[in-house]
Every structure is written in structure tokens, then in C-alpha cells.
Amino acid sequence: MDNEANKKTAGDFANAFAASFAESLTQAVGRPLQLKVLETPDLGSRPGPPVHFRLTAGGGVRGECYIELYEPQAAELGSRILGKPAAGYAEEHAEALKKAIEAAMPGVSAALSSEYGELTFEVDRVGELAFGGMLLVPLAVTAGEKSSIPVLLYFDGKLLTALSSQTMMKDASETAKSPADPANLKLVMDVELNVLLRFGQRELPLREVLDLTSGSIVELDRLVDEPVELLLDGKVIARGEAVIVDGNYGLRVTEIPQPMASHFS
Questions:
Q1: Please, are residues 129 and 152 in contact by the beta-carbon 8 Å criterion?
Q2: From the centroid of its chain, how far is CA 22?
Q3: Per-residue model confidence as pLDDT tens digits over 67-111
């Protein structure tokens, strides 16, 4: 799968997560918090042991995404959620963060549903992991001050493939279905086109063609009650019944196989 496509889909997912998790944290803490996606991660120093949460995606796409914080920052956020003074990291801080993440996931699902269909997420705590080969997207939680709390998202290959594949299939489907631009069609609306009414056809060897005389009958490949065809540039654009209009042949259209605009796209 194309690496740029993976980065784009991971970025879209990260932006949806950042917006929804920031809203969840704001409600839990009682003060505005922002969560933004960063261009590059700052991995030079890790402020403490990591705390990991796993998002297991189901529904429209399947795979796993991991959230990484660090114990000092997890203690700070957890204490704000619990309304307690900041102290050393404890399991209650991780549990408070887990609930805040769970509260954010319906918003993530809603933000991505138009692209990937209905999504579900399970959130659970996991031990320290090795993230070799996973795609990393860095985020940061801020509350208006200069300091920020780092949050890292790691995407496994299965989730990236599922996200990218869904996006590519949707793009291909929309390209195939896209009709001609009405604005462009207006430019040629007055151009006259020759259309052909075909009652039927027949292939004849050259000797039979040379034998044709006035009064000869050529049997066509179409029954009397079968619809006749209206052709534009060799393509059937409509079918219907032959009628007489003021002494001229005409066609009463009964079927249009494809939308007319599709013939000009």
C-alpha cells in the first residue's frame, strides 16, 4: 500500500481522534483543553515510563491503534479528571483516562462514518509494547499554556491497510459515477447531432448483396414486437416503439439504458 496514502488516512483518523478526545477531556476536566496533531514527534526525551491504551476497530474497518502517554503526564491528566491534587502516578489515573478515551470514540466513529461506514471501538489497557514498523502520528494536549502533554498514536499495518483500501475504493467508485460537468455541457447544448433509428440489422455475404434488386426482402434480426433502438455515434442511447408522426417515422421512447449525461463524460 502506498506510504503517502497510509500517512493521509492515518492523519485523517488522528484529526478525528484529536477533536473528539479534546472534547471528552474538556467535559471531564471542566476547562478547555485542545489536542492537536503535530508535524513531527519529539522523541528525544521520554519523560517517564509509558502508559498504553489499545483501540481495537471493528465494523467498516478492522485493526488496532495504540495510544501512548507517559506516567507523569497521565497522572496530571488523570488528576484533573478526578478533581484531585496532582500526585504520583496511580492506576486510578489510567482508569480515568480510559473512560475519557471511551467517551471520545463515538465522536470518532461519527466523524469517520461517511468515509468508512459504521465503526466500533474497544478500549483497553495494555502493557509496555514494542512499536517497530508501526506508523506514528504525534499529538499534544494543551490548555492554553506553553507546556503540552505528548500523546502518540501508533497504527498497525492491518488498520492502515483497511483505512487506505476503503478510501481508494470510494475514490474509484466516485470517479466512475461522476457525471459530466453541467457547466461544460452548457457550452455544447446547441450543437446538432445525428441520431440513427435502427429497426434491426443483418449480415449478408457479398454475393447476396450483389443479388439485391427492387422488391427483394431482407430479413432483419429483430422481431416485430421488439423495441427499436436509437443510436448516437454507434451507441444505443434509447429504445422504444416506432410510430408515425405527420407522415414521418418517429420513436416513442420506452427505455433509456443509461443516464444521458454519462454518454458525454
A1: no
A2: 24
A3: 999 999 899 999 999 998 877 899 999 999 999 999 999 999 999
Q: Pinpoint the residues of the chain covered by CATH 2.30.330.10.
A: 182-264
Q: Distance (Å, rounded) from C-alpha 16 to C-alpha 108?
A: 5
Average of per-residue pLDDT across 187-216: 85
The listed CATH number (3.40.1550.10, 3.30.1300.30, 3.30.70.20, 3.40.50.300) that belongs to domain 3-177: 3.40.1550.10
- CA pseudo-torsion sign 225, 231, 236, 238: negative
**Helix, strand or coil, per DSSP, at residue 67:** strand
pTM of the model: 0.62
Q: Which amino acid is at 253?
A: V
Inter-CA distances, 167 with 4, 112, 170, 260, Å: 13, 11, 5, 28
Q: Which one has a higher pLDDT value, 165 or 56?
A: 56
67 Cβ partners below 8 Å, 6+ apart? 52, 53, 54, 55, 101, 151, 152, 153
Listing from the earlier edge strand, what are the strands of the sheet with 119-126?
34-37, 135-142, 149-155, 63-70, 50-59, 119-126
CA distance readout (Å), 205 to 56, 115, 199, 202, 223: 68, 57, 20, 10, 22
Give the amino acid at 101: I
Radius of gyration of the chain (CA): 32
With beta carbons less than 8 A apart as the criterion, state whether 24 and 100 touch. yes
Residues in CB range of 58: below 8 A, 6 or more apart? 119, 120, 121, 122
Is 51:70 a contact under the CB 8 Å cutoff? yes
